[in-house]
Specification:
Layout lengths: L26 H12 L23 H6 L9 E5 L3 E9 L29 H13 L6 E10 L10 E14 L4 E10 L7 E8 L17 E2 L4 H6 L17 E3 L2 E7 L19 H17 L3 E12 L9 E10 L4 E9 L5 E13 L3 H8 L8 E2 L10 E6 L8 H8 L5 H6 L4 H26 L10 E4 L5 E5 L8 E7 L2 E7 L4 E6 L5 H7 L2 H8 L6 H19 L10 E6 L4 E6 L4 E10 L2 E7 L18
Antiparallel strand pairs: 1-2, 2-4, 3-6, 3-10, 4-5, 5-6, 7-8, 8-9, 9-11, 10-13, 11-12, 12-13, 14-15, 15-19, 16-17, 18-19, 20-24, 21-22, 22-23, 23-24
Protein name: 4'-phosphopantetheinyl transferase
Keywords: Plasmid, Transferase
GO molecular function, one term: holo-[acyl-carrier-protein] synthase activity
């Protein structure tokens, strides 16, 4: 990429921000404007860093506002002291902030409304928010950059179409030697007492050229197998079209990455205007986090931005359509944080901006989860349960919490649950462990149903949130309706500690899972019959506790098959026969019916599967869809 240098700009190169007409004035602002106009001053004053703080800010008329580019993040002014502080209210809406639909963590197009897909304000959009509000305090000055950016929580529209932000800016200091004003800005979500993100925003009458991070040659460079366009096409990034700035070849090294961004028009980002006056290009700037994500994925990690130490701008944003080279050098990878220095060129051989210590949190996710997040309607989270295969058409899958290590379970719920199921999940929040177990059961049951339906209909697999698994009056789970399938399968679900298992079948089945554990004599006496204790006694003593767990699971599974549960009467289900392979014949004393139950031991747990007397045991071994094991 050569060694480009920042331009030495003239004052005229700075994008001057002199209008704040978009900020519907608080009483103080309106009064200041009226006084200014009464004094016969039609033009706004242009303060210097040493100007008095009492000079008013010019406000254009609404007619002028409609004909000119506007600062899209400025809303009603709640408080204002000219040249000192300002507080602006901004309502984020899915209708007005169209880019939010392209920055949603959950991929469920046509299945869930956008508000249920967890749209999140990108960190770089937050930088634009803070810059626009800070600009109100220094009209006539241009944006120089940011320092000490700290994002402490997501700004998300979770199950709402509107989120109110309060943005507070105050002049921290004027540095006459550097010709810069330093403005501290904090963004609060309404009702929160701590800012979601904060920064020092720099404005002045000429650019500062103070950063000179060293960029070394890439060690062991190689061409990434995918171009920027292919990365988006295969959804290795969750971002929608508004943020598709990576383009062409990407070169990856041991401690760095080189690529190219394309600057797109901002005309479709907002519903309120097609001519937003953006002080930075937040959609393109988001690409820095994306290209860092490409490097991290090549090293088995996934990252989200959390802030930066300093960003300097050296020239106005290049024209739309410009291809701008970018290079990144990784400076820290230890622990949970990844730090990097970044340089973005202007497409004409000079430097547009530099960043020192762009920070990201690192995550390590299982591959099955990574692929599922990309295409929930093509991948499963569950894996085939370790049960005998007899080709009876059932699908039995299992899952553990290990598949979701370092992943937020509330986001997992949004990926997998329908709109009707989410309130049930939230209702379990008082007991987090119970909530996780319930969710694991639903996740694996959804997978079993989706795989069963795809095999039955030879149709594409469904999105897990496209249907609902409910419970009847006895607590038995059932599929309420299944798109494209006239007769949904019957399901059974069980969970124990960190594991869950589910089966889907055309006929009634029952499944259970329990950890093998020591049981005292009183427990054994309470749920077994004398005949069952005699059967267990025939096995070696070392196997007794395992057989006790097998027997308990077999009774539970049979009760689920019948739809009655054990109902506090475990001895109403009696084992007639126990076989070395784990097969148990259970007789239901009330109905005099006998059922075959297969049990297997897996990683310290017993899994039991009960089927109708005429049914064989197992599940199909072949599938057109991916099961991770």
């Amino acid at each position: 990429m050569g060694t480009p240098v920042p331009k030495q700009p003239s004052v005229g190169d700075l994008p001057l921000i002199g209008r704040v007409f978009e900020a519907r004035a608080a009483e103080e602002l309106a009064l200041a404007v009226a006084v200014h106009e009464d004094l016969g001053n039609p033009e706004p004053p242009i303060p210097t860093p040493s100007s008095t703080a009492s000079q008013p800010v010019h406000t254009a008329t609404m007619d002028e506002a409609q004909n000119e580019a506007i600062l899209p993040f400025l809303g009603p002014v709640l408080a204002y002291v000219p040249g000192e502080t300002i507080t602006v209210e901004r309502h984020l809406t899915l209708e007005g902030d169209r880019y939010l639909a392209d920055h949603a963590f959950v991929h469920a197009p046509g299945v869930k409304p956008a508000s249920a897909c967890l749209p999140v304000l990108p960190m770089t959009m937050s930088l634009e928010v803070m810059a626009e509000v800070a600009a109100c305090l220094v009209p006539g000055y241009g944006l120089l950059g940011f320092e000490d950016v700290k994002a402490t929580r997501w700004i998300e529209l979770a199950d709402t179409d509107v989120l109110t932000l309060h943005i507070t800016a105050r002049v921290d200091r004027h540095d006459e030697d550097r010709g810069a004003s330093f403005i501290r800005v904090e963004v609060f979500i309404e009702g929160q007492t701590r800012p979601a993100i904060s920064a020092m925003v720099l404005f002045g009458d000429h650019y500062l050229i103070e950063l000179s991070p060293a960029f070394t040659e890439l060690a062991n460079p190689y061409r990434h197998p995918l171009t920027g366009e292919e990365i988006y096409g295969e959804r290795h990034m969750f971002h929608g079209p508004s943020f598709h700035c990576l383009s062409g070849e990407i070169i990856v090294g041991d401690h760095g990455i080189i690529g190219e961004f394309v600057r797109h028009s901002p005309e479709d980002l907002f519903g309120s205007t097609r001519s937003p006056q953006l002080l930075i290009d937040p959609a393109l700037l988001d690409g820095i986090g994306q290209i860092l994500g490409v490097w991290a994925m090549e090293h088995g990690r996934y990252v989200f931005p959390i802030g930066l130490a300093k960003l300097e701008i050296y020239c106005p944003s290049p024209p739309v359509g410009t291809r701008v080279p970018v290079r990144v050098e990784i400076t820290q990878t230890e622990g949970k944080r990844l730090l990097a220095n970044v340089e973005v060129q202007d497409g004409a051989g000079a430097v547009w901006m530099r960043i020192v210590d762009w920070g990201s949190w690192k995550f390590n996710w299982e591959q099955c989860l990574v692929d599922f997040r990309r295409f929930p309607d093509q991948y499963l989270l569950g894996r085939a349960a370790p049960l005998p295969n007899s080709g009876d058409g059932s699908v039995c899958l299992t899952v553990t919490t290990a598949e979701f290590q370092n992943f937020d379970f509330s986001i997992l719920a949004r990926h997998c649950l329908s709109m009707e199921e989410m309130p049930v999940f939230n209702g379990h929040a008082r007991i987090p462990q119970r909530q996780k177990q319930w969710l694991l059961g639903r996740v694996v049951a959804k997978d079993a149903v989706r795989l069963w339906a795809a095999e039955q209909t030879q149709a594409p697999m469904l999105h897990p949130a496209a249907f609902t698994i409910d419970n009847d009056g006895q607590g038995r789970p059932f599929v309420r309706a299944l798109p494209g399938c006239n007769t949904p399968p019957l399901v059974s679900i069980a969970h124990s500690e960190t594991r869950a298992i589910a089966v889907a079948h055309t006929e009634a089945v029952g499944v259970d899972i329990e950890r093998i554990a020591e049981h005292d004599a009183s427990f054994i006496q309470a749920f077994t019959t004398a005949h069952e204790r005699n059967l267990i006694a025939k096995f070696p003593q070392v196997e007794h506790q395992t057989w006790i767990t097998r027997l308990w699971c077999a009774k539970e599974a049979t009760g689920k098959l019948l739809g009655t549960g054990i109902n506090g009467l475990p001895q109403a289900f009696e084992a007639i026969q126990l076989e070395n392979g784990g097969r148990i014949e259970i007789k239901h004393q009330t109905s005099a019916r006998s059922f075959e139950v297969k049990t297997v031991e897996d990683c310290g747990f017993i899994i039991a599967y009960a089927s109708q007397p005429h049914s064989s045991f197992g599940h199909k071994s072949e599938s057109a869809y991916t099961i991770f094991g």
